[in-house]
Every structure is written in structure tokens, then in C-alpha cells.
Amino acid sequence: MTFGKWGKVAVAALGVAALSSAVFAQDKEALVKNRIDFMKGQAADNKAIGDYAKGMATKEAATKAINDLIDRSGKIVAMFPAGTSSTDMPGKSNAKAAIWTDHAKFVEIAKTLHDTAVAEADVIKTGTPEAVGAAQANLGKVGCGACHGPYREKLPG
Amino acid sequence: MTTDFGTFYPPNITPDKVHGIGSWTEAQFHRALRDGKGKDGEYLYPAFSYPAFTGMTDQDISDLWAYLKTVPPSAQPSKPHDLKFPFSFRPVLLGWQILFLHKGPLEPVAGKSAEWNRGRYLAEAVAHCGECHSPRNALGGIDDKHAYAGNPDGGDGQRAPNISSHPKGIGKMSEADLAELLNTGATPEGDYVGGGMALVVDGTAKLSAADRKAIAVYIKSVPAQESTQAKKPAPKKG
After folding, report:
1. Residue A134: closest CA among chain B residues belongs to which residue?
2. I need a surface site. Which of A7, A8, B111, B208 has the fewest CB within 10 A?
3. Residue B125: what are its φ and ψ, rounded to 5°?
């Protein structure tokens, strides 16, 4: 197994996990609130790119958004220290406990988001808005939806 | 899939003769979908989707049958808790994606537009939105009184959210928003659906824009309902 940047991210997250019992409840609440805002920021980036594909926003706005997504993708894993699952913090966190039992796959999806976003930046640079629309639908699926399926709770109401 | 009376595993519906449906006849297949009876005439549990298939046209069922015949046979036995016949979500989705969609024997409702009736046919008889999004009663049948109000078991241990037009459902989504979600998987906020719903979108993305719009028109017409089961935990993945 290679120990590249993503391996280090995973190890960093586990390090945070080891310390988590020392994290006060209050801090955990702030952390979860922060990560939810962070996730919403990613959604806003997607929306900006989608708007560009539909001719409703500038290429400049789409470029800014994809760069922000690339930047954010490297920060996701560290935002999920152990002790912040929906079981630990019902009603506050929607992070499924599977994140910590099936951690390698969680890290892998964050990396897929990163790689897909890097490729999409090229499409924005050189491709048509239609091509951007297709790249964006793919990113949403393999980079966002793929993680939300197994790792995020969705309340049926 | 877990119901109040046990866990069911997706059965083997590949053409393998021993473990799959290789020894079935097309007539048995039609009967299973129409009447909920297995190969030997035994009744199938309502937890399987057959109620939703009774609305499909004969042609669509024949197309699905022809499609399943092309799937490579798998010699893997169905898991022991399995029910005799076919359907869990994934094969269903696989099947309908490639179907030619015809106007079905699901009787059109008088006084509703052709678009609404088309949407109802696609949502109810072909894409089975309610199979995941409607809550179930103790027997595993769909609780029609709370159609589309959300279900703790939306397949694969995932919750299927309320998609009625209740404020806690998709009250804020317009028909256009919903049609867009069925095309790209994106919500109006730029979030993306995952899990079983991503597979559904793989299918609906292949429909025409007019058909996606029709589904949206129909789903948005469903009465707003609050979820009856918002507090019920999702089953463990099985």
C-alpha cells in the first residue's frame, strides 16, 4: 500500500479520533455545525457549475467553484472525527456510524471526488457547456452521491 | 430487505437453471408479475414488488423477460431466507432501464391530463417510486393511505425520504426541479442523491424529457403527507 497524501489524511483523521474523548460535547457540536456548512458550500459550488452548464452563469463563476471543490475535497476526511456519528449525536449529526467501521472506502470516495473535480476543471477550461453539464452530473454521482448513499442518514420525513 | 416478518435477500433471477429462473416459462413469469404467484403457483409475499408490476403491459413484461434471458447465468444459490420469486430493487431497476415503455393497462384516470396519466404509469407501474418511498404495513404491503410519505427501508439499509409535497417532503421542489433531479440526480440546492436513488436516476436519465416531466407532474400531485415513520430506525444492511 502506498502512503501518499490520502493515506496521511486517513491517518490524521484517526489521530483526531484517538483524541476525541477529550473533545467536549460543545466542541463536537461546533464541529458538526461547521461540517454541515462546509457541505452546503460544496453544494453551492455544484449549483454554480450546473448554472454555467445551463447558460445561467459565467465561466468565471464555474472556474471559481471547481477550484473551491478541489480545495475542499482534501479537507473532508478530517472533518469526521470518531464520536460524531448520528448515534453519538442524534438529531444533530447525520453521519452514519459506518464511516468509522468502513473507513477506507470513505477515504477512497473523498479521493474520487478530488480526482473527478481535477478532471472537470479541464473540461470547464476547454469544453462546451454541455460537456461541463455531463462532467458535473458524473461528479455529483461518483463524488457526492456515492458517499451520501452509504454514509449519510436521510430522514424519511 | 427487512420487513416486520424477517429479512429477504435479493433472489437469483439470472437464467441459471438450478438457482435462477432458467427453468421458468415465460407464462410463469407473466403470472408471477400479474398475480403474485411463484413458479409452482405458490403465493408470493407482498413484500416483493409484484403488486406494482400488475400495472405493466404484457409487452413490457415480455421485454423484461427477454432482457433477463440475456443476463449471464449465475450459479450462486439464492440465500436461504429468500422467497421463491424474483424481485428486489436492483434487478427491477436493471430490467426497466432497458424496456421500451408503452402505455399501460393501468386504467387512465378520467378527468386527469394525458401527461398526468403517463406520469402515473411511469411512476407506479415502471419505475416503482412507491416501492421505496411509501411506508409499509406490518405485512410488508404498501401503506396506501400514506403513499410517498417516506420509508425507513428504502433498500440497502437506506431511508427513502418523504417525497409527497409536505413541507418536510419535497414541498419546496417545483415540477422542473424534480424533473431535473430525475435527469442528473441534483437537488435544487446542488446536493446529489445517493444509494438506490442514484440507480433510479441512471434509469430516468434515459427517459425523454417529456416523460421525466410527466413523472414530476404526477408525483407533485400526490397529497402532502407527514411521515408516519420518521422516528423508526433504518434496518441494518442485510
Report:
1. B184
2. B111
3. -95, -20
Alpha-helical regions (H) of A54-142: 59-73, 98-101, 103-126, 129-139
Tell me: the pLDDT tens digits for B195-210? 888 888 888 888 899 9
List all residues 6 or more positions away from B226 whose beta carbon is below 8 Å from its beta carbon: A157, B149, B162, B166, B168
Mean pLDDT of A11-24: 45
A-chain CB neighbours of B135 within 8 Å are 156
Q: Please tell me if residue B147 touches chain A, with a CB cutoff of 8 Å.
A: no
- Name residue, grid cell 490524521: A12
Closest to A52 in 3D by CA, of A132, A113, A117, A123: A132
Answering whether pTM is above 0.80, one says: no
DSSP state letter for B40: T
CATH match for B114-220 among 2.30.29, 1.10.12, 1.10.760, 3.40.1000: 1.10.760
Indicate if ipTM > 0.85. no
Residue contact B195–A155, C-beta within 8 A:
no
Packing angle between helix A129-139 and helix A103-126, nearest 10 degrees?
180
- Distance CA(B3)–CA(B12), nearest Å, equals 19
Q: What is the distance between the alpha carbons of residues B63 and B183, in angstroms, rounded to a whole number?
A: 24
Domain count, chain A: 1
